[in-house]
């Protein structure tokens, strides 16, 4: 710890004191408490806690003492449960304040929290309310706070579409560019699009001087220029550059932008050399990667954000679902191949000549798609097919409950976050 004196520190939470050594704070399971280890000044300390007593080396937190006692039980024993006779949402607010999430709760309490949040449509966010300065009340801003406030406003303008009027205008323009680029991409695959010049698909994929001057090439270049400028500005105003590069939506932006420049460079270097016509396939693949621009809409629509956040939080359930399907595929494909083709019963179904071929029939049967391109013809095979369909319905339905509750929770979180910025936008109109 870089601030304070003495071998130990005292945390005063709502009147209840806890004493810890300095080394314990460094890797403390609660993020807010562990932040004290890196504080360099009293001002840094006051950003983490509510008050500080220099003489006693005591840090005061104006929070619920009984709730913190239950949180300390989790730190010591690894089990986190709700405080009896305390509102679940209030306790969840305390968890968020100290740096815990709903996933840290025991399973029974997680279900109680999900049910309560589904009823009230409320989410307590971990971030500070928009518009509140990070350095404390007005008049206590550190040097350079004005520049930091300007960067924060720019960051919110590009990251939060509902944070201000400028952010809404920027989001609307970005959506229009995405829609236009998708329309051009879809139209470029129509036969009528290249019929007047009788150009092949390979020729369409090459960026020549003539193609760039065409309307479709001009529109594509303008869209790419907008997306590139937007990505560069968002990178410049971001707080953590490494974290910016690791975010999924930013990775998608790079995947959508870089193929255009790679295609242009490949065309410039290969020219019209007939020996490098194989590059046409690569260019078509790169151009088709522009379909990732559709995912850029996730920045502006809560539905797509909810889907991505749910998949992120339910990766264990998704893996469990894939394991169920793989185990069932291994069993039913082997049995179906044996009953339809492996036994010498005078009737052999060529569609089931191998177990990998039978896996296709198993997957379309378990998901109740049933294309009809292959089906069992023997009585034992049909009985097995019925069992396969029923088993697929049961196995696919088992993890759905967990995924549904996570989806509801993620939707409420994002709705509450959007509502916070909408209130900030209303305040901006009033001012």
From TrEMBL:
Organism listed in the record: Rhynochetos jubatus (kagu)
Family: Belongs to the potassium channel family. G (TC 1.A.1.2) subfamily. Kv6.3/KCNG3 sub-subfamily.
SUPFAM superfamilies reported in the protein's UniProt record: POZ domain (SSF54695), Voltage-gated potassium channels (SSF81324)
InterPro entries in alphabetical order: BTB/POZ_dom, Ion_trans_dom, K_chnl_volt-dep_Kv, K_chnl_volt-dep_Kv5/Kv9, SKP1/BTB/POZ_sf, T1-type_BTB, VG_K_chnl, Volt_channel_dom_sf
Compartments reported by the entry: Cell membrane; Cytoplasm
Record's keyword terms, sorted: Cell membrane, Cytoplasm, Ion channel, Ion transport, Membrane, Potassium, Potassium channel, Potassium transport, Transmembrane, Transmembrane helix, Transport, Voltage-gated channel
Cellular component annotations (GO), alphabetically ordered: cytoplasm; voltage-gated potassium channel complex
Span list, region Disordered: 126-146
Start and end residues of each BTB domain: 7-116
Gene: Kcng3
GO molecular function: delayed rectifier potassium channel activity; potassium channel regulator activity
Membrane topology: Multi-pass membrane protein
Name assigned to this protein: Voltage-gated potassium channel regulatory subunit KCNG3
Segments crossing the lipid bilayer: 165-190, 217-237, 249-271, 291-311, 318-339, 351-371, 383-407
Quaternary organization: Heterotetramer with KCNB1. Does not form homomultimers.
BP GO annotations: action potential; protein homooligomerization; regulation of potassium ion transport
